[in-house]
């Protein structure tokens, strides 16, 4: 499916901890090659959430890019993904790994690209580990399930 522009929300609670991320992507097939366009339109901090602006929160942005690159690697088609919005709750509920996973799920939903269910389950377990052992600000590697 093509030409979507909708906010995708991923919210889970596990062991009393909230995990959440919001991304708005415009996903379109193309014939040339994969392309990710960053077009953050956030308004900054409001209502205890953070809408990411053009400047700032580099780790969240990199986490999202890593997630989208992982998702693109599972498609035989070429895609243009325009990132229009990225939001979360800093310091408590959102980190680069959560944002990256939210991006993976948003891309899957909009593109109908299939990623093996077992792989998605393994990634979700990896996401749940992202708040522990100092990993909350590290960049995820979704292919290796490690933090850089």
Quick recap:
This protein is an alpha+beta fold and 148 residues long. 29% of the residues lie in helices and 34% in strands.
CATH architecture: 2-Layer Sandwich
Output the CATH topology: Ribosomal Protein S5, domain 2
| Rounded mean pLDDT score | 88
Following the backbone from N to C, one meets helices and strands in this order, namely EEEEEHEHHEE
Q: What is the number of strand segments?
A: 8
Classified by CATH, the class is: Alpha Beta
For the sheet with most strands, the description reads: 6 strands, mixed
Number of domains: 1
Classify the helix fraction into a percent range.
Answer: 25-40%
Oligomer: single chain
Spans where pLDDT lies below 50 across 5 or more residues = 1-5
Global shape: globular
Radius of gyration: 14 Å
Number of helices: 3
Structure in words:
- There is one protein chain.
- The chain has 148 residues and is an alpha+beta fold.
- It has a single domain, classed as Ribosomal Protein S5, domain 2 (2-Layer Sandwich).
- 29% of the residues lie in helices and 34% in strands.
- The protein contains 3 helices and 8 strands; from the N terminus they run βββββαβααββ.
- Strands 1, 2, 3, 4, 5 and 6 form a 6-stranded mixed beta sheet that branches. The chain has a two-stranded antiparallel sheet with strand order 7-8.
- A hairpin with a 4-residue loop joins strand 7 and strand 8.
- Helix 1 (58-72) packs parallel to helix 2 (96-111).
- The radius of gyration is 14 Å and the shape is globular.
């Amino acid at each position: 499916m093509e030409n979507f522009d909708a906010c995708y929300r991923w919210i889970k609670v596990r062991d009393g901890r909230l995990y959440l991320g919001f991304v708005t992507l415009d996903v379109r097939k193309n014939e040339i090659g994969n392309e990710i366009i960053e077009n953050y339109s956030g308004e900054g901090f409001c209502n205890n959430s953070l809408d990411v602006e053009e400047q700032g929160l580099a780790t969240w942005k990199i986490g999202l890019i890593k997630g989208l690159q992982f998702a693109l690697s599972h498609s035989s088609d070429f895609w243009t993904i325009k990132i229009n919005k990225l939001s979360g709750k800093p310091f408590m509920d959102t980190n680069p790994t959560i944002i990256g996973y939210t991006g993976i799920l948003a891309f899957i939903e909009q593109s109908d690209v299939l990623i093996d269910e077992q792989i998605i389950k393994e990634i979700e377990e990896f996401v749940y580990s992202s708040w522990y052992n100092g990993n909350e600000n590290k960049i995820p590697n979704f292919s290796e399930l490690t933090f850089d």
